[in-house]
Amino acid sequence: MPQINQLPDIFISQLFWLAVVFGIIYFWIGRGLVPKIQSVVEDRDKKIADDLAAAQRAREQAEASEEAYRERIDASRSEAMKVAQEAKHQAALDTEKRLKAVDAKIGKKVAEAEGKIRTAADAARRELEPVAAEAASELVSKLTGQKISAKDAETTVKAVLHG
Amino acid sequence: MAEAGKIDPMHQFTVEPIVPLHLGPYDISFTNSSLWLLIALALITGFMMMGMKRQLVPGRWQMAVEGLTGFIDDMVKVNIGPEGKKFMPYIFSLFVFILTANLLGLFPLSIFPGAHQFTTTSHFSITGVLAVLSFSIVLIVGFARHGLHFFSLFVPHGTPKIMVPLIAGIEFISFMVRPFSLGLRLFVAMIAGHILMEVFGSFIVNGFNGGPLGWGVGAISFLFIIGVTALELLVCAIQAYVFALLTTLYLNDAVNLH
Fold first, then answer.
1. Which helix or strand (DSSP H or E) is residue B27 part of?
2. The whole model's pTM is what?
3. Burial environment of residue B36 by CB neighbours within 10 A (0 to 12, 13 to 18, 19 or more)
4. How many Å lie between the alpha carbon of B175 and the closest alpha carbon of chain A?
5. Can you tell me which residues the record assigns to a coiled coil (chain A) (predicted)?
Protein backbone atom coordinates (compact mmCIF):
# COMPACT_ATOMS: atom_id res chain seq x y z
CA MET A 1 0.00 0.00 0.00
CA PRO A 2 1.83 3.11 -1.19
CA GLN A 3 -0.11 5.21 1.30
CA ILE A 4 1.75 3.45 4.11
CA ASN A 5 5.02 2.47 2.40
CA GLN A 6 5.67 5.95 1.12
CA LEU A 7 4.32 7.82 4.09
CA PRO A 8 7.65 8.81 5.71
CA ASP A 9 8.98 10.08 2.38
CA ILE A 10 5.97 11.98 1.15
CA PHE A 11 4.24 13.16 4.28
CA ILE A 12 5.92 16.58 4.48
CA SER A 13 5.40 17.18 0.78
CA GLN A 14 1.73 16.17 0.99
CA LEU A 15 1.22 18.33 4.05
CA PHE A 16 2.94 21.30 2.42
CA TRP A 17 0.96 21.18 -0.82
CA LEU A 18 -2.30 20.45 0.96
CA ALA A 19 -1.65 23.46 3.20
CA VAL A 20 -0.97 25.63 0.16
CA VAL A 21 -4.01 24.46 -1.81
CA PHE A 22 -6.45 24.25 1.08
CA GLY A 23 -5.15 27.54 2.44
CA ILE A 24 -5.87 29.26 -0.85
CA ILE A 25 -9.31 27.64 -1.02
CA TYR A 26 -10.13 28.65 2.54
CA PHE A 27 -8.69 32.14 2.74
CA TRP A 28 -9.32 33.35 -0.77
CA ILE A 29 -12.39 31.42 -1.95
CA GLY A 30 -14.02 30.52 1.34
CA ARG A 31 -13.50 33.84 3.12
CA GLY A 32 -13.21 36.09 0.08
CA LEU A 33 -15.54 35.00 -2.66
CA VAL A 34 -18.21 33.07 -0.81
CA PRO A 35 -19.35 36.00 1.39
CA LYS A 36 -19.59 38.16 -1.72
CA ILE A 37 -21.81 35.60 -3.40
CA GLN A 38 -23.89 35.31 -0.27
CA SER A 39 -24.25 39.07 -0.08
CA VAL A 40 -25.50 39.07 -3.68
CA VAL A 41 -28.04 36.40 -2.77
CA GLU A 42 -29.08 38.32 0.33
CA ASP A 43 -29.42 41.56 -1.64
CA ARG A 44 -31.58 39.80 -4.16
CA ASP A 45 -33.75 38.23 -1.48
CA LYS A 46 -34.08 41.60 0.20
CA LYS A 47 -34.98 43.28 -3.07
CA ILE A 48 -37.58 40.64 -3.81
CA ALA A 49 -39.03 41.01 -0.33
CA ASP A 50 -39.06 44.81 -0.66
CA ASP A 51 -40.72 44.65 -4.05
CA LEU A 52 -43.33 42.28 -2.73
CA ALA A 53 -43.99 44.56 0.22
CA ALA A 54 -44.29 47.56 -2.11
CA ALA A 55 -46.70 45.64 -4.31
CA GLN A 56 -48.72 44.71 -1.25
CA ARG A 57 -48.82 48.34 -0.15
CA ALA A 58 -49.89 49.49 -3.60
CA ARG A 59 -52.62 46.90 -3.60
CA GLU A 60 -53.86 48.00 -0.20
CA GLN A 61 -53.85 51.59 -1.39
CA ALA A 62 -55.81 50.67 -4.49
CA GLU A 63 -58.31 48.80 -2.38
CA ALA A 64 -58.69 51.76 -0.03
CA SER A 65 -59.24 54.20 -2.88
CA GLU A 66 -61.74 51.87 -4.46
CA GLU A 67 -63.54 51.69 -1.15
CA ALA A 68 -63.58 55.50 -0.93
CA TYR A 69 -64.82 55.76 -4.49
CA ARG A 70 -67.60 53.31 -3.79
CA GLU A 71 -68.56 55.23 -0.66
CA ARG A 72 -68.67 58.46 -2.61
CA ILE A 73 -70.75 56.88 -5.33
CA ASP A 74 -73.14 55.50 -2.74
CA ALA A 75 -73.39 58.84 -0.99
CA SER A 76 -74.08 60.78 -4.17
CA ARG A 77 -76.63 58.21 -5.27
CA SER A 78 -78.56 58.51 -2.03
CA GLU A 79 -78.24 62.30 -2.23
CA ALA A 80 -79.70 62.27 -5.73
CA MET A 81 -82.50 60.02 -4.55
CA LYS A 82 -83.28 62.41 -1.70
CA VAL A 83 -83.31 65.41 -4.02
CA ALA A 84 -85.60 63.63 -6.45
CA GLN A 85 -87.91 62.61 -3.62
CA GLU A 86 -88.06 66.16 -2.35
CA ALA A 87 -88.73 67.56 -5.79
CA LYS A 88 -91.55 65.08 -6.25
CA HIS A 89 -92.98 65.92 -2.87
CA GLN A 90 -92.75 69.64 -3.60
CA ALA A 91 -94.40 69.21 -6.94
CA ALA A 92 -97.23 67.24 -5.34
CA LEU A 93 -97.69 69.96 -2.74
CA ASP A 94 -97.76 72.67 -5.42
CA THR A 95 -100.29 70.82 -7.46
CA GLU A 96 -102.48 70.38 -4.43
CA LYS A 97 -102.25 74.06 -3.56
CA ARG A 98 -103.11 75.15 -7.05
CA LEU A 99 -105.90 72.68 -7.18
CA LYS A 100 -107.27 74.07 -3.94
CA ALA A 101 -107.06 77.65 -5.23
CA VAL A 102 -108.77 76.74 -8.46
CA ASP A 103 -111.36 74.80 -6.46
CA ALA A 104 -112.08 77.80 -4.27
CA LYS A 105 -112.38 80.10 -7.27
CA ILE A 106 -114.78 77.76 -8.97
CA GLY A 107 -116.77 77.36 -5.73
CA LYS A 108 -117.09 81.12 -5.45
CA LYS A 109 -118.27 81.41 -9.05
CA VAL A 110 -120.78 78.67 -8.51
CA ALA A 111 -122.04 80.35 -5.35
CA GLU A 112 -122.35 83.65 -7.16
CA ALA A 113 -124.21 82.03 -10.00
CA GLU A 114 -126.47 80.28 -7.53
CA GLY A 115 -127.17 83.62 -5.78
CA LYS A 116 -127.99 85.25 -9.08
CA ILE A 117 -130.32 82.41 -9.95
CA ARG A 118 -131.98 82.73 -6.57
CA THR A 119 -132.49 86.49 -6.85
CA ALA A 120 -133.79 86.03 -10.39
CA ALA A 121 -136.18 83.37 -9.15
CA ASP A 122 -137.26 85.60 -6.24
CA ALA A 123 -137.78 88.52 -8.60
CA ALA A 124 -139.78 86.31 -10.90
CA ARG A 125 -141.82 85.07 -8.02
CA ARG A 126 -142.42 88.63 -6.76
CA GLU A 127 -143.56 89.70 -10.22
CA LEU A 128 -145.81 86.67 -10.28
CA GLU A 129 -147.68 87.66 -7.14
CA PRO A 130 -149.55 90.79 -8.44
CA VAL A 131 -150.32 88.93 -11.65
CA ALA A 132 -151.68 86.02 -9.62
CA ALA A 133 -153.64 88.35 -7.35
CA GLU A 134 -155.09 90.17 -10.31
CA ALA A 135 -156.00 86.89 -11.96
CA ALA A 136 -157.49 85.60 -8.74
CA SER A 137 -159.64 88.69 -8.19
CA GLU A 138 -160.80 88.58 -11.75
CA LEU A 139 -161.66 84.91 -11.35
CA VAL A 140 -163.52 85.62 -8.18
CA SER A 141 -165.49 88.49 -9.75
CA LYS A 142 -166.39 86.42 -12.74
CA LEU A 143 -167.43 83.46 -10.70
CA THR A 144 -169.17 85.25 -7.93
CA GLY A 145 -169.67 88.73 -9.25
CA GLN A 146 -168.20 90.02 -6.04
CA LYS A 147 -165.51 92.57 -6.05
CA ILE A 148 -162.57 91.87 -3.95
CA SER A 149 -160.24 94.55 -2.99
CA ALA A 150 -156.84 94.26 -4.50
CA LYS A 151 -155.28 94.19 -1.06
CA ASP A 152 -157.24 91.17 0.09
CA ALA A 153 -156.46 89.28 -3.04
CA GLU A 154 -152.86 90.01 -2.69
CA THR A 155 -152.59 88.75 0.91
CA THR A 156 -154.53 85.64 0.11
CA VAL A 157 -152.43 84.82 -2.93
CA LYS A 158 -149.30 85.42 -0.94
CA ALA A 159 -150.54 83.11 1.77
CA VAL A 160 -151.32 80.42 -0.75
CA LEU A 161 -148.02 80.85 -2.60
CA HIS A 162 -145.82 80.90 0.46
CA GLY A 163 -148.12 78.72 2.34
CA MET B 1 1.16 -0.71 -14.53
CA ALA B 2 4.08 -2.78 -13.46
CA GLU B 3 5.31 -5.38 -15.92
CA ALA B 4 3.35 -6.39 -18.96
CA GLY B 5 0.58 -8.83 -18.18
CA LYS B 6 0.62 -8.08 -14.50
CA ILE B 7 -1.64 -5.32 -13.28
CA ASP B 8 -1.02 -3.97 -9.81
CA PRO B 9 -4.18 -2.37 -8.42
CA MET B 10 -2.17 -0.48 -5.79
CA HIS B 11 0.16 1.16 -8.28
CA GLN B 12 -2.36 3.94 -8.98
CA PHE B 13 -1.84 5.29 -5.48
CA THR B 14 1.92 5.70 -5.81
CA VAL B 15 3.18 9.21 -5.31
CA GLU B 16 5.91 10.10 -7.80
CA PRO B 17 8.00 13.22 -7.53
CA ILE B 18 7.85 15.48 -10.57
CA VAL B 19 10.03 18.36 -9.41
CA PRO B 20 12.21 17.59 -6.38
CA LEU B 21 12.08 20.51 -3.94
CA HIS B 22 13.63 20.95 -0.53
CA LEU B 23 12.82 23.45 2.17
CA GLY B 24 15.61 23.23 4.71
CA PRO B 25 15.75 19.63 5.83
CA TYR B 26 12.27 18.91 4.55
CA ASP B 27 11.38 17.30 1.26
CA ILE B 28 8.53 19.26 -0.29
CA SER B 29 8.90 17.85 -3.77
CA PHE B 30 6.23 18.70 -6.28
CA THR B 31 4.62 15.30 -6.87
CA ASN B 32 1.76 13.99 -8.95
CA SER B 33 -0.32 14.34 -5.80
CA SER B 34 0.59 18.04 -5.61
CA LEU B 35 -0.22 18.39 -9.29
CA TRP B 36 -3.72 17.01 -8.79
CA LEU B 37 -4.22 19.20 -5.75
CA LEU B 38 -3.38 22.18 -7.92
CA ILE B 39 -5.72 20.96 -10.67
CA ALA B 40 -8.50 20.74 -8.07
CA LEU B 41 -7.65 24.26 -6.93
CA ALA B 42 -7.73 25.52 -10.52
CA LEU B 43 -11.10 23.90 -11.17
CA ILE B 44 -12.62 25.28 -7.98
CA THR B 45 -11.21 28.73 -8.68
CA GLY B 46 -12.49 28.63 -12.26
CA PHE B 47 -15.91 27.49 -11.12
CA MET B 48 -16.16 30.25 -8.53
CA MET B 49 -14.78 33.02 -10.74
CA MET B 50 -17.26 32.22 -13.50
CA GLY B 51 -20.03 32.87 -10.98
CA MET B 52 -18.68 36.15 -9.67
CA LYS B 53 -20.52 38.46 -12.04
CA ARG B 54 -22.76 39.37 -9.10
CA GLN B 55 -25.78 40.15 -11.22
CA LEU B 56 -29.14 40.82 -9.69
CA VAL B 57 -30.66 38.39 -12.16
CA PRO B 58 -28.18 35.51 -12.16
CA GLY B 59 -27.00 33.67 -15.23
CA ARG B 60 -26.72 29.89 -15.33
CA TRP B 61 -23.22 29.76 -13.94
CA GLN B 62 -23.97 32.22 -11.19
CA MET B 63 -27.03 30.14 -10.30
CA ALA B 64 -24.81 27.07 -9.97
CA VAL B 65 -22.33 28.87 -7.71
CA GLU B 66 -25.12 30.38 -5.63
CA GLY B 67 -26.76 26.99 -5.41
CA LEU B 68 -23.56 25.49 -4.02
CA THR B 69 -23.01 28.24 -1.46
CA GLY B 70 -26.69 28.16 -0.55
CA PHE B 71 -26.53 24.40 -0.05
CA ILE B 72 -23.61 24.66 2.38
CA ASP B 73 -25.13 27.71 4.04
CA ASP B 74 -28.37 25.82 4.68
CA MET B 75 -26.49 22.84 6.05
CA VAL B 76 -24.52 25.03 8.46
CA LYS B 77 -27.58 27.02 9.50
CA VAL B 78 -29.71 23.94 10.11
CA ASN B 79 -27.05 22.09 12.09
CA ILE B 80 -25.34 24.87 14.02
CA GLY B 81 -27.81 27.72 13.90
CA PRO B 82 -27.17 31.43 13.34
CA GLU B 83 -23.80 31.20 15.10
CA GLY B 84 -22.60 28.80 12.45
CA LYS B 85 -22.17 31.59 9.95
CA LYS B 86 -18.51 32.08 10.76
CA PHE B 87 -17.77 28.41 10.13
CA MET B 88 -19.46 28.46 6.77
CA PRO B 89 -16.26 29.33 4.79
CA TYR B 90 -14.46 26.39 6.35
CA ILE B 91 -17.26 23.90 5.70
CA PHE B 92 -17.60 25.25 2.19
CA SER B 93 -13.88 24.85 1.54
CA LEU B 94 -13.94 21.30 2.90
CA PHE B 95 -16.92 20.24 0.84
CA VAL B 96 -15.76 21.83 -2.39
CA PHE B 97 -12.22 20.57 -2.06
CA ILE B 98 -13.15 16.99 -1.19
CA LEU B 99 -15.86 16.82 -3.84
CA THR B 100 -13.54 18.11 -6.55
CA ALA B 101 -10.67 15.88 -5.50
CA ASN B 102 -12.95 12.82 -5.38
CA LEU B 103 -14.43 13.50 -8.79
CA LEU B 104 -11.01 14.23 -10.29
CA GLY B 105 -9.96 10.78 -9.14
CA LEU B 106 -12.60 9.31 -11.45
CA PHE B 107 -11.48 11.38 -14.40
CA PRO B 108 -10.75 8.86 -17.17
CA LEU B 109 -7.35 10.25 -18.03
CA SER B 110 -5.83 6.77 -18.41
CA ILE B 111 -7.29 6.48 -21.90
CA PHE B 112 -4.28 8.55 -22.95
CA PRO B 113 -1.22 6.26 -22.83
CA GLY B 114 1.21 7.20 -20.10
CA ALA B 115 -1.13 9.67 -18.43
CA HIS B 116 -2.66 8.72 -15.12
CA GLN B 117 -4.98 10.56 -12.84
CA PHE B 118 -4.30 10.56 -9.13
CA THR B 119 -6.86 10.58 -6.34
CA THR B 120 -5.53 12.88 -3.66
CA THR B 121 -8.32 11.91 -1.25
CA SER B 122 -7.23 8.26 -1.41
CA HIS B 123 -4.26 9.17 0.77
CA PHE B 124 -4.78 9.46 4.47
CA SER B 125 -1.92 11.92 4.52
CA ILE B 126 -4.51 14.22 2.93
CA THR B 127 -7.77 13.06 4.51
CA GLY B 128 -6.14 12.56 7.90
CA VAL B 129 -4.79 16.10 7.90
CA LEU B 130 -8.21 17.46 7.01
CA ALA B 131 -9.80 15.35 9.75
CA VAL B 132 -7.27 16.51 12.31
CA LEU B 133 -7.84 20.09 11.17
CA SER B 134 -11.60 19.73 11.67
CA PHE B 135 -11.08 18.08 15.04
CA SER B 136 -8.66 20.80 16.15
CA ILE B 137 -11.15 23.49 15.20
CA VAL B 138 -13.81 21.69 17.21
CA LEU B 139 -11.49 21.52 20.25
CA ILE B 140 -10.38 25.14 19.94
CA VAL B 141 -13.92 26.44 19.51
CA GLY B 142 -15.20 24.24 22.31
CA PHE B 143 -12.60 25.28 24.87
CA ALA B 144 -12.64 28.91 23.78
CA ARG B 145 -16.39 29.17 24.20
CA HIS B 146 -17.01 26.98 27.21
CA GLY B 147 -13.61 26.61 28.90
CA LEU B 148 -13.40 23.52 31.07
CA HIS B 149 -17.17 23.28 30.95
CA PHE B 150 -16.64 21.75 27.52
CA PHE B 151 -15.90 18.46 29.29
CA SER B 152 -19.58 18.23 30.18
CA LEU B 153 -19.96 17.10 26.58
CA PHE B 154 -18.99 13.65 27.88
CA VAL B 155 -21.92 13.53 30.29
CA PRO B 156 -25.23 13.71 28.43
CA HIS B 157 -28.21 15.24 30.20
CA GLY B 158 -30.17 12.95 32.47
CA THR B 159 -27.40 10.45 33.05
CA PRO B 160 -27.90 8.68 36.41
CA LYS B 161 -25.11 9.52 38.89
CA ILE B 162 -23.93 5.92 39.07
CA MET B 163 -23.57 5.70 35.32
CA VAL B 164 -21.53 8.89 34.96
CA PRO B 165 -18.03 7.30 34.94
CA LEU B 166 -19.05 4.62 32.47
CA ILE B 167 -20.93 6.99 30.14
CA ALA B 168 -18.16 9.57 30.31
CA GLY B 169 -15.62 6.92 29.36
CA ILE B 170 -17.67 5.77 26.39
CA GLU B 171 -18.38 9.33 25.29
CA PHE B 172 -14.72 10.23 25.61
CA ILE B 173 -13.67 7.30 23.46
CA SER B 174 -16.32 8.06 20.85
CA PHE B 175 -15.19 11.69 20.88
CA MET B 176 -11.54 10.79 20.40
CA VAL B 177 -12.39 8.38 17.60
CA ARG B 178 -13.96 11.18 15.60
CA PRO B 179 -10.88 12.37 13.70
CA PHE B 180 -10.01 8.80 12.75
CA SER B 181 -13.51 7.93 11.60
CA LEU B 182 -13.68 11.22 9.71
CA GLY B 183 -10.37 10.76 7.89
CA LEU B 184 -10.49 7.01 7.45
CA ARG B 185 -14.06 6.93 6.10
CA LEU B 186 -13.15 9.13 3.16
CA PHE B 187 -9.80 7.46 2.58
CA VAL B 188 -11.26 3.95 2.68
CA ALA B 189 -14.22 4.79 0.48
CA MET B 190 -11.94 6.25 -2.14
CA ILE B 191 -9.27 3.55 -2.06
CA ALA B 192 -11.81 0.72 -2.05
CA GLY B 193 -13.67 2.08 -5.05
CA HIS B 194 -10.51 2.63 -7.02
CA ILE B 195 -9.11 -0.82 -6.24
CA LEU B 196 -12.43 -2.37 -7.24
CA MET B 197 -12.40 -0.52 -10.54
CA GLU B 198 -8.80 -1.42 -11.22
CA VAL B 199 -9.43 -5.08 -10.40
CA PHE B 200 -12.41 -5.30 -12.72
CA GLY B 201 -10.43 -3.41 -15.34
CA SER B 202 -7.69 -6.03 -15.10
CA PHE B 203 -10.36 -8.76 -15.40
CA ILE B 204 -11.44 -7.21 -18.68
CA VAL B 205 -7.89 -6.96 -20.02
CA ASN B 206 -6.84 -10.42 -18.91
CA GLY B 207 -10.19 -11.94 -19.83
CA PHE B 208 -10.10 -10.75 -23.41
CA ASN B 209 -6.48 -11.93 -23.66
CA GLY B 210 -7.64 -15.39 -22.58
CA GLY B 211 -9.84 -17.96 -24.34
CA PRO B 212 -13.61 -17.88 -25.08
CA LEU B 213 -14.35 -18.33 -21.38
CA GLY B 214 -12.25 -15.30 -20.66
CA TRP B 215 -14.31 -13.23 -23.11
CA GLY B 216 -17.40 -14.02 -21.07
CA VAL B 217 -15.63 -12.96 -17.89
CA GLY B 218 -14.44 -9.82 -19.61
CA ALA B 219 -17.93 -8.95 -20.87
CA ILE B 220 -19.48 -9.46 -17.44
CA SER B 221 -16.71 -7.42 -15.85
CA PHE B 222 -17.31 -4.68 -18.37
CA LEU B 223 -20.99 -4.51 -17.48
CA PHE B 224 -20.13 -4.59 -13.83
CA ILE B 225 -17.55 -1.82 -14.05
CA ILE B 226 -20.16 0.49 -15.59
CA GLY B 227 -22.28 0.05 -12.49
CA VAL B 228 -19.30 0.44 -10.20
CA THR B 229 -18.32 3.67 -11.91
CA ALA B 230 -21.81 5.08 -11.49
CA LEU B 231 -21.76 4.02 -7.85
CA GLU B 232 -18.35 5.63 -7.39
CA LEU B 233 -19.66 8.93 -8.75
CA LEU B 234 -22.37 8.76 -6.11
CA VAL B 235 -19.86 7.83 -3.41
CA CYS B 236 -17.69 10.82 -4.35
CA ALA B 237 -20.54 13.21 -3.66
CA ILE B 238 -21.76 11.35 -0.59
CA GLN B 239 -18.32 11.18 1.03
CA ALA B 240 -17.75 14.89 0.49
CA TYR B 241 -21.20 15.59 1.94
CA VAL B 242 -20.64 13.27 4.89
CA PHE B 243 -17.28 14.82 5.71
CA ALA B 244 -18.75 18.32 5.65
CA LEU B 245 -21.90 17.28 7.50
CA LEU B 246 -20.03 15.47 10.28
CA THR B 247 -17.73 18.46 10.71
CA THR B 248 -20.75 20.73 11.13
CA LEU B 249 -22.29 18.30 13.63
CA TYR B 250 -19.08 18.19 15.66
CA LEU B 251 -18.87 21.98 15.49
CA ASN B 252 -22.44 22.13 16.70
CA ASP B 253 -21.41 20.15 19.79
CA ALA B 254 -18.60 22.60 20.39
CA VAL B 255 -20.69 25.72 19.81
CA ASN B 256 -23.95 24.80 21.46
CA LEU B 257 -22.81 22.05 23.88
CA HIS B 258 -26.06 20.04 24.18
1. strand B26-27
2. 0.75
3. buried
4. 24
5. 52-79
